[in-house]
Design goal:
Blueprint: H1 6-17, E1 21-24, H2 28-33, H3 40-54, E2 60-63, H4 65-69, H5 72-88, E3 92-99, H6 103-114, E4 124-127, H7 137-146, E5 149-155, H8 161-165, H9 175-188, E6 197-198, E7 201-202, E8 209-213, E9 233-238, H10 247-252, E10 259-263, H11 265-268, H12 277-298
Parallel strand pairs: 1-2, 1-10, 2-3, 3-4, 4-5, 5-8, 8-9, 9-10
Antiparallel strand pairs: 6-7
Length: 304
């Protein structure tokens, strides 16, 4: 199957639906809040309800793979159906699996989440580079071959992350900056990626390889003075994790046009309480719309 590169498709989705990714994180507390059992049936009701409510509304849906895996083979089957349903509704999908390994094992992860014939294939996959950036080569190759993408963990919001990500090498760059530079180089090698300086102002670049930078990491200039990677910046942490949309300006500065904010619990909790069926759908859509309005205000984007 021939498809446009992920970066181009993401730009189109954001322009059509707005710059928002909604995560599907069906952890036990949310299932309970929705009045659902913590089992495969509850998992499927939860995840499919989110897709049915938002799959034709938001640009990107991001299932957190671990919350499906914890239910075994039945949970993986639900994930397959959720990815297919989101694609049918027109949303792009990111499998939030944070995979990281070497050699044939990493190639197998690439086949699973980016392979053309895989039932688990998403439009993009989150990956961990902490076995060395070169260990990601099978994923990058698979993404290029299938028109899909990858998001590389660069600056995460967990306190432990700084121990590794802020460490400096002999050239003075932090580990985070070295990863950002490596992703930028991958996108620069693709002729489709652009710097995005159009009509006198910065525009989002079209590279298919992005990075994950937490929205709660604060002013990152001292750690990573150049965030531009010629591709998307996935920014989790809006809402329940502590960041509000206005903080995006502080964290990302000139790189804002390439930021894709991600909200999970801030939207998903809208399905709690007595809301069922159409009422739950309306509640989820209203929560996503509020999140998008806040994000667009922070990014100074309107009418996208």
């Amino acid at each position: 199957m021939t498809r446009a590169p992920f970066g181009e498709r993401l730009l189109g989705a954001v322009r059509a639906r707005g710059p928002l990714c909604v995560g599907i994180d069906p952890h036990p507390g949310l299932l309970d809040g929705w009045g659902l059992a913590d089992d495969v049936r509850g998992l499927e009701t939860f995840a499919r309800t989110v897709v049915e409510a938002l799959g034709d509304q938001v640009a990107v849906i991001k299932p957190q793979v671990a919350f499906f895996e914890r239910h075994g083979s039945g949970g993986i089957a639900v994930l397959e159906r959720v990815l297919a349903a989101a694609a049918s509704a027109g949303a792009l999908t990111i499998a939030d699996a944070k995979r990281g390994d070497v050699g044939s094992t990493m190639a197998a992860y690439a086949d699973a989440f980016l392979g053309e014939d895989s039932p688990l294939a998403a439009d993009a996959l989150t990956v961990s580079p902490y076995l060395g950036f070169g260990s990601l080569a099978p994923v990058l190759a698979a993404a290029r071959a299938t028109g899909r993408g990858a998001f590389v963990l660069a600056l995460t919001s967990n306190p432990e992350g700084a121990e590794v990500q802020h460490a400096r090498g002999v050239d003075g760059r932090t580990v985070a900056q070295r990863l950002l530079d490596a992703v930028r180089a991958e996108n620069a090698a693709d002729a489709r990626a652009t710097d995005g300086d159009v009509d006198g102002g910065p525009q989002p670049a079209s590279g298919s390889f992005g990075v994950v930078v937490g929205a709660t990491v604060g002013d990152v200039a001292a750690v990573a003075p150049r965030l531009d990677v010629r591709g998307p910046i996935l920014a989790p942490g809006i809402g329940a994790q502590g960041a509000d949309a206005a903080e995006l300006r502080v964290v990302f500065g000139p790189a804002l046009p390439s930021v894709l904010p991600s909200v999970s619990r801030g939207v998903l909790v809208a399905g709690q309480g007595e809301a069922t069926g159409p009422a739950r759908t309306r509640a989820l859509r209203a929560a996503a719309r509020r999140a998008l309005d806040d994000v667009e205000s922070a990014l100074a984007r309107t009418g996208i």
